[in-house]
Design goal:
CATH class of the largest domain: Mainly Alpha
Number of strands: 0
Number of domains: 2
Number of helices: 11
Strand content: under 5%
Order of helices and strands: HHHHHHHHHHH
CATH architecture of the largest domain: Orthogonal Bundle
CATH superfamily of the largest domain: Tetracycline Repressor, domain 2
Distance between the termini: 49 Å
Helix content: over 70%
Structural class: mainly alpha
Largest sheet: none
Shape: elongated
Radius of gyration: 20 Å
Length: about 220
């Protein structure tokens, strides 16, 4: 049943509140039981309305799943990119940015989402393609915008920002991220996270930083 904090008893939730509640319930259901194991009937029961009401918001389970992925990835990227570039200490600023990216990619929710999409993409290829655009392509676009700003500020050498974004994502999605996906490690401590952020910062700036930052990274002087 839909329960909205701060709402007066017996008052009817607004369409936006109901939609949010549906997405919250669907998110937990998909993460717990997977795409195939989750039914619209179950979600309707937990929301506290009829299936007809649920379908009026989301005409299919696929559309509901995509809406969940859309919201989760949008929130992730907003939290990562909600910062300003620093010209005074660019190495430290970039290291902090990398760490924020890793914290997002390694969060329990995002790891669970990756596993879910990978598990279902073989049976539902269209869903895989759609969620790729939302989860990965959207991330590349946001990274490219960020890197284009860094190039304009002079902290990165001029190149194709999309190419730089692809390279960065390859770095960030390796090592610790792969270990988490495979459940080779369940938790990552702050020391390991900092070490990975430092490694990625060094490799990336060596390739894409301005001349001074690139040389410093190659000497091993990065943050």
């Amino acid at each position: 049943m839909v329960i909205v904090e701060g709402r007066k008893p017996n008052s009817k939730p607004s369409p936006d509140e109901r939609r949010t509640a549906i997405l919250d319930i669907a998110r937990e259901a998909f993460l717990q039981d997977g795409y195939s194991g989750t039914s619209m009937s179950r979600i309707a029961v937990e929301v506290g309305g009829s299936k007809a009401t649920l379908y009026s918001y989301f005409p299919s389970k696929k559309e509901l799943f995509v809406a969940v992925i859309d919201r989760e990835t949008a929130q992730l990227y907003d939290s990562i990119f909600n910062l300003k570039l620093s010209l005074e200490e660019p190495e430290t600023a970039f290291h902090d940015f990398v760490r924020r990216c890793l914290e997002g990619l390694l969060s329990d929710t995002i790891i669970a989402g990756y596993r879910l999409i990978i598990a279902e993409a073989g049976r539902f290829p269209e869903m895989g393609k759609t969620t790729y655009e939302l989860a990965v392509r959207r991330g590349i676009d946001r990274l490219a915008q960020y890197f284009a700003q860094a190039m304009a500020h002079g902290t990165m050498r001029h190149c194709d920002p999309v190419e730089a974004a692809d390279s960065f994502l390859d770095l960030a999605a390796g090592n610790l991220h792969s270990q988490r996906l495979w459940n080779a490690i369940e938790k990552i401590d702050s020391k390991a996270l900092d070490a990975e952020a430092k490694r990625i910062t060094s490799v990336f700036l060596a390739a894409y930083g301005n001349e001074a930052l690139s040389q410093a990274a190659r000497r091993g002087d990065s943050a």
